Amino acid sequence: MGCDGGTIPKRHELVKGPKKIEKVDKNAELAAKWKYCALSQEKLRRPIVSCELEGELYNKDAIIEYLLDKSAERPNAEAVAHIRGIKDIKELNLTDNPEWEGERRNTKGDRYEDIHCGMFICPVVGLEMNGKHRFCYLQTCGCVFSDRALKEVKTEICHKVGNIHLFIFPRLFSLSRLSTLTAIFEVTESRW
């Protein structure tokens, strides 16, 4: 039982301090933003869309379900409150990452799973879309490029589709809320 004369309790044994707050791993949180739909929290699958305002990634079917029935309660409905119609989103033209195994990999649990390996890459530079690098997409064709690729290759032609695009602000949008629109202004101003 203790405290019968044989033991002397210390303060930390008698007084309980405040509980420590759990910290979220920032790398895992970034990886989740690039692999899961911001509305339904399901894995991203084609067709993938993004909005101009937030730059989050969504499954197109989740957005269509939301637009058809806005009265249904969803846990992340505030994340898409700004989307009023199909015209507010753009279907993205993404390049698959050949190193990403996804559902094809061995699911026995005896392999190392790299959470930083992105499902998609930049077609110009080869950077993975895993939250470590900024990515932008063209509003006209939906092609996705890394910010580094847009800074290195100065041209008005889309590298993936081959259409002529002027890289001006209304046509170039940033993916992910972590990337600010000031980076887009820097890219577009350096082209003039």
UniProtKB/TrEMBL annotation:
Which Gene Ontology cellular component terms are annotated?
nucleus
Biological process GO annotation list? DNA replication termination
What CDD domains does the record point to?
RING-like_Rtf2
Domain of life assignment: Eukaryota
Q: Which family does it belong to?
A: Belongs to the rtf2 family.
Against PANTHER family, the record matches this protein to: PROTEIN C20ORF43 HOMOLOG, REPLICATION TERMINATION FACTOR 2
Tell me the protein's name: Replication termination factor 2
What organism does this protein naturally occur in? Maylandia zebra
